[in-house]
Amino acid sequence: xxxxxxxxxxxxxxxxxxxxxxxxxxxxxxxxxxxxxxxxxxxxxxxxxxxxxxxxxxxxxxxxxxxxxxxxxxxxxxxxxxxxxxxxxxxxxxxxxxxxxxxxxxxxxxxxxxxxxxxxxxxxxxxxxxxxxxxxxxxxxxxxxxxxxxxxxxxxxxxxxxxxxxxxxxxxxxxxxxxxxxxxxxxxxxxxxxxxxxxxxxxxxxxxxxxxxxxxxxxxxxxxxxxxxxxxxxxxxxxxxxxxxxxxxxxxxxxxxxxxxxxxxxxxxxxxxxxxxxxxxxxxxxxx
Length: 288
Known about the structure:
single chain, alpha+beta, CATH 2.40.50.140, 2 domains, five-stranded mixed barrel, two-stranded antiparallel sheet, 8 helices, 18% strand
């Protein structure tokens, strides 16, 4: 069979199969790298504090890499625009959310100031900062929440939802940040409220099994390309063997066994044993 495989035609086909196998292997390597890359945690750049206008602009959505980013923003809280939320994590029964107007951009920004166990204390804490003075807030920046998360029982709200705040805030010029800030301890202390328990966001690591499956699939394709070449060569060799056998039989010769050579014709049974003399009397009746 390998005599057939060494012919130029099949060598050229082998080279083509190897090229295809190489391409498939490269695709498999790429998919494997993607499965590993997708499983890496996001870089922890959120722990480097930056000014809010360095990381985002008004109306810009907050991506996953920005959630929990440490920021600093300066502005003034608007009097009478304190919103009280309940049912939130981070501490306390009630949390005060103030309306901060950013000095750098003039856009509105919700700020979760702190918590209290009484609604009146939460409102008083928010109003305490809305004295017209410029306040510098340090905290973490998060994506805005949907008002659908609110529980409307007895007029209670739980989501930091700018889409709802625009209907209740008194001073609003239609420019809003796409997220909100959870203030740190300094701002909560200034408002005489408890500090919201907030910590660095965790980056969930998930291995991408779909990309891994694709990588294995490409490796199988690479092996199949070489196997297909082998199968073609073997089929060609078997076809040539059949043609030689049929040609020998058509020429009137003994059938050819590709493995053992020509097959001997069966000997005629004339009643004699190998090497035994012929009995003339029995061979020719009437003769003594």
